Amino acid sequence: MSSDMLILNRKIGEGIILGDNIEIKILDIQDGKIKIGIEAPKDIPILRKEVYDSVIEENQKSIESEFDISVLFNKE
User: Which of 6, 31, 36, 51 is deepest in the core (most CB within 10 A)?
Assistant: First the structure.
């Protein structure tokens, strides 16, 4: 991960534009939680970071798995 990070302050109703077609908007702030809205094309996947990290971890585990696929075809 890059150590470069753009840090912005936003208020409710303000947004951030990514590229030409993604907008992130601050909808609400209550009790230390921020509610954001994301407008993006349907073909762009949007995942919470913890879900994304979990998917990456599971994919890595499956790559590292030493499953012998031949056992699926040698059922006698």
Answer: 36
